[in-house]
Amino acid sequence: MRQWTAYQVFLFTLPLPFGGNADWAWPFFSAAALILLFIELGYLLKVQQQAALPSLPVSEAFHRGLPLLMLLLLLQLWVLVQSFTTSLSPYDTHLSLLKGIGLCAFFALSLQLLNTRERVKRAVWIVVLAAAFQALFGALMVLTGWEFGFFIEKSAYRGKATGTFINRNHLAGYLEMALALGIGLLLSQSTRYQGSLRQRLRQLITMLLSDKVILRLLLAVMVIALVLSRSRMGNSAFFASLLIAGALALLLMRHKSRSTTILLTSLLVIDIAIVGTFFGVEKVADRLQQTSAQSESRDEVTRDTIALWQAHPWAGTGAGTFVTTYPAFRSADVTTDKLYNNAHNDYAQFLAEFGAAAYALFAIILIWCLWWAIAAMRKRRSELFRGMGFASLMGMSAIGIHSAVDFNLQIPANAYMFMLLLAMAVIARWAPHDARPLPLLQQPEQPLIETETSA
Predict the structure, then answer these.
(1) pTM exceeds 0.85, yes or no
(2) Where does residue 163 fall: left (phi above 0), alpha (psi -120 to 50 degrees), or beta otherwise?
(3) Which residue, 66, 67, 117, 108, is CA-closest to 432?
(4) How many CB atoms lie under 10 A from the CB of residue 284?
(5) What is the CB neighbour count within 10 angstroms for residue 450?
(6) What is the per-residue DSSP string for 282-337?
(7) CA 177 to CA 418: how far, in whole Å?
(8) Around Cβ 435, how many Cβ atoms within 10 Å?
(9) Predicted pLDDT at 294
């Protein structure tokens, strides 16, 4: 299907134009997600008509995730209400609504299109390849000193890996989520060595020639770029989320092999000890040690953002209005001349802009998906869906930790990746093990054209 091909292209190109954080890029992605969803719905309607089905033949994950989709759409309805009533900057709230509609469309599209094991694997591979490209490009710019981003020379974060993102922390956020998906896929490909020594050796050679080794190498490249970004919280969030998800995996996963424990341990030991030694993880540690309240103003900005929320506790100031409303609440001890477009704390900014009721609604969505990710790790027999449950849990944990000191979820590419993780939690928990794609539409029969032949 054309929409499946377009969805794959969509996944790969998301981070390319400055992480989608450009006035011409994010409308394109929002429109593309919505158009693809309408095409898919039209396709389902035709299948329903041809097969005389009583309802649309949506995937099991879409059916199970429909309540979550309704909650996400309810959030967009609230933004629409804000834009006409309480918003302090209706224009910015209208823009936020368009972004939110695109994210909801992508969530629904992911639930529907990732309806087979092969498609889930393909989607994860595309994300890994896209992230590996960002990692290779970012590392190359650092190691060669060329310092280019997306076709333009970098004006900031020189000497740090940024890929085609503007900010190194946003590359780090993207890599955290892509690494989680890649590690989940790697866990689903556990190797069990059985039989005689000759058979075990043959199994080892088969494994070394498989795409599992390629995947592991790509993950190592991504960790190298994560270290080269020198993002303090990016690196901390990645390793903390790996420890959290890894501990839960070892505790909850049934029928796990010894290779699962070895793999999770090797990810920490190899990536920290070897990759860090050659590419400077100690520089990240030095930045963490040198960080102080005096050298950072993020705590003060977060404090001011909470004060902004307290002035509008229930209705909020309006989605997307932080840049226009924060200056009135900026404290005198925030002495930097920097213009704060975002709060460097997604939790505080979301609370201030959307209000307490919408904040609670989003918290319900997040907790629901986290629960399904954990349930997939504990209950599913399929190694793939257990691995995707792990990926969803690890990715949401990583970006959740990082979002406490940054604004990754304000960057379109990272917001779409977060929606993919939410969708993957639903898929991991509910997708049937033996799902098959919908049949192709039957083409109308062409009338036969009779031709006269001479005797």
Answers:
(1) yes
(2) left
(3) 117
(4) 22
(5) 6
(6) HHHHHHHHH--TTT--HHHHHHHHHHHHHHSTTT-S-TT-HHHHGGGG--TT----
(7) 8
(8) 17
(9) 47
DSSP state, 273?
A: I
Contacting residues for 318 by C-beta, under 8 A, at least 6 apart:
82, 83, 86, 87, 88, 89, 90, 92, 93, 96, 325, 353
Calpha distance 103→108 (Å, rounded): 9
Distance (Å, whole) CA 344 – CA 384? 35
Collapsing DSSP states into helix, strand and coil, what is residue 341? coil
Strand partners, 148: 153
Q: Which residue has the tokens 């690890």?
A: 394
The C-alpha atoms of residue 229 and residue 154 are separated, in whole angstroms, by 14
**410: which residues sit within 8 A by CB, 6+ positions away?**
342, 346, 349
- Sign of torsion, CA 248 249 255 256? negative
- Out of 86-95, 302-311, 434-443, pick the least confident: 434-443
Could you give the angle at which helices 211-228 and 168-187 cross, rounded to 10 degrees?
160
CA 29 to CA 113: how far, in whole Å?
A: 17
Other residues' Cβ atoms within 10 Å of the Cβ of residue 115? 23
As a whole number of angstroms, the distance between CA 248 and CA 367 comes to: 16
Helix (H/G/I), strand (E/B), else coil: 62 = helix
Sign of CA dihedral 340, 346, 352, 353: positive
pLDDT per residue as tens digits for the range 178-234? 999 999 999 888 655 555 666 666 655 665 556 888 998 999 899 989 988 988 889
Contact 20, 151 (CB under 8 A): no
Contact 413, 127 (CB under 8 A): no
Share of the chain residues as helix, strand and coil, in percent rounded to the nearest 5? 70, 0, 30
pLDDT at 110 over 90: yes
Sequence-distant (6+) residues with CB within 8 A of 77 are none
Total residues belonging to the chain: 455
How crowded is residue 84: how many other Cβ atoms within 10 Å of its Cβ? Answer: 10
